[in-house]
User: Which sequence fits this backbone?
């Protein structure tokens, strides 16, 4: 046992020494900062001031830059992913909250909630190149990995808008349950998973037909429907498991991505909001807005292994190899 | 310039994309202008036609969705002058093919309209009243109520007071009929949650700040100990005078001080800040409760129309009263209508002038169906004999009366037992 522990310590010490150690970066909405975590050690390494009300965050495909929406500064900041220094800003439009990068990393699609627009930004020229008029209060946004579709979920119109990447035009709209929050494609781009905060559902959409093929009502014994407010959703690359953060229910739903049935619920911190995989998809990280921590879930056993205090209102999260 | 052309082209394209056959949904918004009341202070300007902007914004929102679904929402705005004959105006200006009416009218006027023969096939959305009677004995089958009733508000306050353990209330009510109703709701809530009204007094003094505030209030509140001063003054004639002027230092709650309300300027959670901002830009002022009521009314119609693809009253009503309906109202919980009396179930905000103090229902107040039904008259308590066809629930009187009769008997028994028990304890 002692030897084991020593082994673990040694391995993790080596890992933390290694230049390529994984780091997890979290936006702290109330602290106006980024929290940098070592997820293997389960430790907060540091916090870095970033700007007013940081929320959405993404990592460039080459892992060199972080994009962070600082909502109250009305900009998306470009941050050096090693030094955490600001290297530039993107014209995001007002009050940017969520955005998505295309696979090549040269287009950034921002939801402008107040103006009911999706702004398309060229990350190279740092210019807005198109605006797409969508429904009221667009929020969740995702780009398919084959770079065909951008989907935007509008919270008050209750629709998924399918934007053709080539033309930046809406091609189709799918009516979904009330207040859709987040959307994500499966790795094979055949399905789109969408959460509805008010109806407490996860909807699986078929990308080919743009229709809902399955609706999963998330019920948790002992909690009334009011507490079931799904937000963030991710699906692993093999499409074995999908995970849904259920906000004030303080749980992550584990969904069998083949049968589309709920496998179990994992208790995490309060008001769990967004989710991110580790690069090897062996761990899942959650931002817990109310309890100010990040939960680390071991995906081999589906067990919550650790909680790391990060600062006030952790919101967005990415992991960097 | 190039950008403008590009924008125009984009808009044109959008129009082309969504040029489907259009289904028109006709909604009338009807209100009557109010006499400008005597102002307590000049801090808050009187807002004529409160509510209208809420309906406007919701109609815009509906039409944004409509451009994707091939539906068009038309809002016919009717503003009756102060002295106008509302019934006549209604008959003249609301077309037969308008199925949905949003009203910003007092209970008395509302009743005149909804009982008209021409109103039978219309569905009314009452965006203003807070009367419990309209939701109980006086309820109508063709009316839905958007704002929380007095009893819902009082229950919200009481829940928070229970949490604070401020359970000794000094109740002050005004001379108006509404104040009496508010006081009744407060006493009902006190009774429900185990709060004691240690003193109940009516304010009969003047409403003159110079005289009243410093001299009358201390005397008025003297001679009794309590936790909070609960004010029932819906017109806002004297309630504001109590804070800082009572004989002993106690907080003020009720219609002034900490107020239970459907909407408030301090509310920013759950996306509320977005609608607050949008409203301010469009209306040039802050969103008020009646704006919120009208907003919810038009949004309810929009939601039901988009989901059912129908503009028929019966279909929309069934959908609204059914289990599928879930309205996003910026309060963190899905809003829906109570099948037994058409009241929109919703969280109630507890707000001080510049800070949102809490949101009811509070944690720990449990309910078998939804915690939102811990506020106001629950199904078994309601005396509304509303015909509920849509849910397949047993309609009408016989059943409801039986339930009430049974409840009464049980309550009496409980009371007798408690008296017996208290006597036993007392005798010891």
Assistant:
């Amino acid at each position: 046992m002692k030897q084991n522990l020593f082994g673990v310590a040694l391995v993790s010490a080596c890992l933390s020494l290694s230049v390529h150690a994984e780091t997890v970066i979290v936006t702290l909405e109330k602290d106006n900062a980024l929290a940098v975590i070592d997820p293997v050690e389960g430790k907060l390494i540091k916090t870095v001031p970033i700007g007013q009300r940081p929320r959405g965050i993404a990592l460039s495909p080459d892992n060199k830059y972080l994009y962070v929406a600082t909502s109250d500064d009305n900009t998306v900041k470009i941050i050096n992913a090693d030094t955490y220094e600001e290297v530039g800003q993107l014209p995001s439009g007002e009050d940017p909250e969520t955005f998505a990068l295309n696979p090549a990393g040269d287009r950034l699609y921002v939801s402008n909630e107040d103006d009911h627009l999706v702004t398309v930004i060229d990350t190279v020229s740092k210019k807005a190149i198109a605006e797409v008029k969508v429904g009221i209060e667009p929020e969740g946004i995702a780009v398919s990995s084959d770079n065909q579709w951008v989907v935007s979920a509008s919270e008050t119109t209750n629709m998924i808008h399918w934007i053709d990447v080539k033309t930046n035009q809406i091609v189709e709209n799918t009516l979904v349950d009330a207040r859709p929050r987040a959307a994500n494609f499966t790795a094979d781009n055949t399905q789109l998973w969408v959460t509805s905060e008010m109806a407490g559902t996860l909807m699986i959409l078929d990308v080919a037909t743009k229709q809902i093929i399955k609706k999963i009502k998330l019920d948790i014994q002992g909690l009334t429907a009011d507490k079931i407010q799904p937000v963030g959703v991710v699906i692993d690359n093999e499409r074995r498991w999908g995970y849904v953060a259920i906000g004030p229910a303080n749980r992550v739903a584990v969904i069998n991505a083949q049968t589309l049935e709920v496998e179990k619920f994992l208790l995490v911190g309060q008001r769990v909001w967004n989710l991110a995989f580790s690069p090897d998809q062996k761990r899942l990280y959650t931002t817990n807005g109310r309890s100010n921590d990040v939960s680390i879930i071991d995906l081999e056993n589906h067990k919550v292994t650790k909680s790391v205090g990060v600062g006030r209102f952790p919101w967005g999260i990415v992991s960097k190899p | 310039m190039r950008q403008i052309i590009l924008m125009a082209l984009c808009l044109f394209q959008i129009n082309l994309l969504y040029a489907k056959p259009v289904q028109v949904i006709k909604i009338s918004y009807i209100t009557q202008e109010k006499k400008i009341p005597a102002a307590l202070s000049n801090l808050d300007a009187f807002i004529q036609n409160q509510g209208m902007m809420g309906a406007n914004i919701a109609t815009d929102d509906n039409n944004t969705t409509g451009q994707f679904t091939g539906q068009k929402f038309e809002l016919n705005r009717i503003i009756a002058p102060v002295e106008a004959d509302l019934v006549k105006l209604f008959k003249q200006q609301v077309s037969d093919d308008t199925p949905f009416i949003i009203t910003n009218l007092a209970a008395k006027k509302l009743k005149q309209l909804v009982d008209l023969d021409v109103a039978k096939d219309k569905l009314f959305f009452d965006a203003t009243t807070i009367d419990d009677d309209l939701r109980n004995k006086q309820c109508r089958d063709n009316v839905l109520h958007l704002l929380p009733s007095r009893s819902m508000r009082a229950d919200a306050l009481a829940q928070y007071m229970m949490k604070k353990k401020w359970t000794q209330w000094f109740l002050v009510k005004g001379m108006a009929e509404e104040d009496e109703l508010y006081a009744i709701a407060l006493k009902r809530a006190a009774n429900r949650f185990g709060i004691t009204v240690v003193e109940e007094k009516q304010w009969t003094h003047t409403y003159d700040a110079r005289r009243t505030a410093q001299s009358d209030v201390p005397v008025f509140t003297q001679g009794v100990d309590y936790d909070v001063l609960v004010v029932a003054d819906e017109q806002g004639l004297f309630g504001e005078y109590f804070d800082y002027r009572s004989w002993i230092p106690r907080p003020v709650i009720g219609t002034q001080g900490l107020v239970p309300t459907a909407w408030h300027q301090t509310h920013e959670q759950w996306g509320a800040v977005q609608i607050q901002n949008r409203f301010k830009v469009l209306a040039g002022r802050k969103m008020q409760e009646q704006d919120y009521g009208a907003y919810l009314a038009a949004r309810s119609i929009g939601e039901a129309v988009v989901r059912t693809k129908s503009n028929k009253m019966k279909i929309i009503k069934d959908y609204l009263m059914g289990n599928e309906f879930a309205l996003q109202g910026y309060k963190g919980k899905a809003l829906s209508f109570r099948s037994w009396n058409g009241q929109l179930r919703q969280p109630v905000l507890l707000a001080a002038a510049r800070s949102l103090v809490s949101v009811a229902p509070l944690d720990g107040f449990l309910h078998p169906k939804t915690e939102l039904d811990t506020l106001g008259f629950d199904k078994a308590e309601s005396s509304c004999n509303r015909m509920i066809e849509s849910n397949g629930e047993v309609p009408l009187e016989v059943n409801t009366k039986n339930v009430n009769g049974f409840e009464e008997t049980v309550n009496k028994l409980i009371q007798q037992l408690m008296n017996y028990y208290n006597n036993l304890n007392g005798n010891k």
